[in-house]
Inverse folding.
């Protein structure tokens, strides 16, 4: 089961974190952009090349200490097909370096359309008798608010290709409470209902560490709900955004973990990508600054949870 690979990486590195690769051109050092623009012009091609070069530097600096990366599709889609090629190349490079890749696409549809999303991001397609993996991620974030019709096509591909999903449950943004905290019949909030659906869907993808291949996205900005969901969802692994730039800290995410220090992986994006700016170090040292921030984050979280 795919999330077993993530958990194995976490255990080996004793680090339950994931590096978000959500690059904006403003985050990228000028020398990388200048080189890309000299080669490809000030074009979408040049921008995409700058993203890829930046990402490769981060992956090289982090791959031995951070178990996973999470590229957010929107930051690549905004640069057209050239950006999407950079996404594919980033995924391939990270996997070659032994990192687990969570593609953050929050896809949501039903039937053949969801089958297409599943094939694109987690599976394969067939072209004239040959099979290809278009993006080749290990897991995909999805929106479960269309119900089982939107999840079942993914589960089929996950079984066949040993991939996984993370379903939005209690997201980190402030307005998530407008819908996700509403109580449904029986008095349970929507986020808990969605979490329990993850538990049910996950029965089709059992894992050897006790967690299924159907994870849930639960934000660090809601520590009480995070701890509540950990108690209610014993077989659901959590992807936890909101640490760092969004205000969540180690004490906030501690409730996501079980007594073995497992059960969650905590994301940081901007704090890693822009660590060199915060440090005030040379732009050429951006990757090593990200590494230092990743070590700080690892140690910060480790001090707040049981030993992994």
């Amino acid at each position: 089961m795919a999330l077993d690979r993530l958990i194995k990486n976490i255990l080996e590195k004793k680090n339950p974190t994931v590096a978000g690769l959500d690059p904006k051109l403003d985050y990228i050092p000028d020398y990388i952009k200048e080189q890309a623009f000299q080669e490809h012009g000030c074009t979408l091609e040049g921008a995409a090349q700058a993203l890829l070069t930046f990402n490769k530097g981060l992956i090289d600096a982090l791959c031995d200490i951070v178990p996973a990366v999470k590229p957010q599709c929107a930051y690549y889609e905004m640069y057209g097909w050239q950006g999407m090629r950079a996404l594919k190349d980033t995924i391939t490079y990270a996997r070659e370096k032994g990192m687990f890749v969570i593609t953050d696409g929050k896809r949501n549809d039903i039937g053949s359309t969801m089958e297409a999303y599943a094939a694109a991001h987690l599976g394969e397609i067939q072209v004239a008798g040959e099979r290809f993996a278009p993006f080749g991620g290990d897991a995909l974030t999805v929106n479960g608010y269309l119900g089982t019709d939107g999840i079942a096509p993914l589960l089929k591909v996950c079984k066949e290709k040993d991939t996984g999903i993370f379903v939005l449950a209690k997201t980190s943004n402030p307005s998530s409470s407008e819908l996700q905290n509403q109580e449904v019949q029986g008095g349970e909030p929507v986020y808990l209902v969605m979490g329990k659906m993850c538990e049910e869907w996950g029965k089709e993808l059992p894992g050897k560490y006790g967690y299924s291949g159907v994870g849930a996205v639960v934000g660090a900005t809601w520590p009480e709900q995070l701890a509540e969901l950990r108690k209610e969802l014993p077989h659901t692994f959590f992807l936890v955004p909101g640490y760092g730039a969004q205000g969540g800290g180690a004490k906030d995410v501690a409730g996501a973990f079980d007594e073995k220090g497992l059960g969650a992986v905590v994301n940081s994006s901007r704090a890693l990508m822009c660590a060199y700016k915060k440090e005030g170090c040379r732009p050429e040292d951006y990757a090593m600054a990200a590494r230092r921030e990743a070590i700080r984050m690892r140690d910060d979280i480790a001090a707040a949870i049981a030993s992994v």
